[in-house]
């Protein structure tokens, strides 16, 4: 798609019904991201997310996605202890979660890990810029690569990941000019999130674009629907109808024959 100049559209999904709808929309790839920690599990960061969490949600999503590529996030500390453990965990996302690829964060410091995982036959997507698993080390959710030295390091990191065998790289929260430089410098696709339109593709969190998560809305998010208000209104209407004995109506109930009813007494 990069070679043909076709933009790549990617979204997250975390459960079966959402995955079926995202897949039906024609989206190219679905990421079961550790962002589920924030938008599904209620954590204030992605750090508490475990391998079991990712595998559980991956299995639901892969049952619902028949055509889109499904990528599973390797969570915090699942690829940092040793290369052997990193390969094993990546394999679990493929074997138990049924993912078609895995994603991990970091640059040159994880290049050899990427090399080891790809050597095991597992496709790896990289992730540079704002890396949520390192948010505390980065000092919060801030734009990365704004000065020349930091930008140069990101370019070097991107090339290292490509040489290590990564098939694509997510670029999060970096200046659009830098994203353009990285995209031109790499033969593999770049997927932007808060990185401008010069990337080869884009990814957003499904809960953000549907207006279902309002704890925090990043600048780079565009809301395509406001399901939060619709869901609240639907639940409130249901509550009112139950309390007013309006629901259930005749079409929602089952009946038995009068002669059978008489046998009870």
Major sheet description: 8 strands, parallel, barrel
Shape: elongated
How much strand content do the residues show?
A: 5-15%
Radius of gyration: 22 Å
Provide mean pLDDT, rounded: 95
Q: Helix count, per DSSP?
A: 11
Low-confidence stretches: none
Report the strand count. 8
Helix-strand makeup class: alpha/beta
Q: What is the element string, with H for helices and E for strands?
A: EHEHHEHEHEHHEHEEHHH
Provide the helix percentage: 40-55%
Q: What distance separates the N and C termini?
A: 72 Å
Widest sheet, order of strands: 1-2-3-4-5-6-7-8
Structural summary, described in words:
The chain is of the alpha/beta class and 265 residues long. It is built from 11 helices and 8 strands. An 8-stranded parallel β-barrel has the order 1-2-3-4-5-6-7-8, surrounded by 6 helices. It has helices at 16-24, 36-39, 51-64, 83-95, 111-119, 135-138, 148-164, 176-185, 206-209, 227-243, 258-262, and strands at residues 8-12, 29-32, 69-73, 101-103, 124-129, 168-172, 190-193, 201-204. Strand 1 (8-12), helix 1 and strand 2 (29-32) form a beta-alpha-beta unit. The chain starts with 7 loop residues before the first strand and ends with a helix. Helix 1 (16-24) crosses helix 3, helix 4 (83-95) packs across helix 5 (111-119) and helix 7 packs parallel to helix 8.
């Amino acid at each position: 798609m990069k070679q043909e100049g076709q933009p790549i559209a990617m979204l997250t999904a975390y459960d079966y019904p959402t995955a079926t709808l995202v897949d039906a929309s024609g989206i190219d790839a679905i990421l079961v991201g550790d962002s589920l920690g924030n938008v599904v599990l209620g954590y204030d960061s992605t750090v508490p997310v475990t391998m079991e969490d990712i595998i559980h949600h991956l299995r639901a999503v892969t049952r619902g996605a028949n055509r889109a590529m499904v990528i599973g996030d390797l969570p915090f500390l699942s690829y940092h202890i040793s290369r052997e453990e990193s390969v094993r965990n990546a394999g679990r996302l493929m074997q138990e979660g049924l993912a078609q690829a895995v994603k991990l964060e970091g640059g040159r410091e994880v290049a050899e890990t990427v090399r080891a995982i790809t050597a095991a036959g597992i496709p790896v997507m990289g992730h540079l810029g704002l890396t949520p698993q390192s948010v505390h080390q980065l000092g919060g959710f801030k734009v990365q690569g704004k000065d020349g030295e930091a930008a140069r390091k990101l370019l070097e990191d991107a090339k290292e990941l490509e040489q290590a065998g990564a098939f694509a790289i997510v670029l999060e929260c970096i200046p659009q000019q830098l994203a353009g430089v990285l995209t031109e410098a790499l033969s593999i696709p770049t997927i932007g999130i808060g990185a401008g339109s010069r990337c080869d593709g884009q990814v957003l969190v499904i809960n953000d674009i549907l207006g279902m998560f309002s704890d925090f809305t990043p600048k780079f998010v565009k809301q395509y629907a406001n399901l939060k208000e619709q869901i609240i209104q639907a639940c409130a209407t249901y509550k009112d109808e139950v309390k007013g004995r309006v629901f259930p109506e005749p079409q929602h109930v089952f009946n038995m024959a009068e002669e059978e009813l008489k046998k009870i007494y």
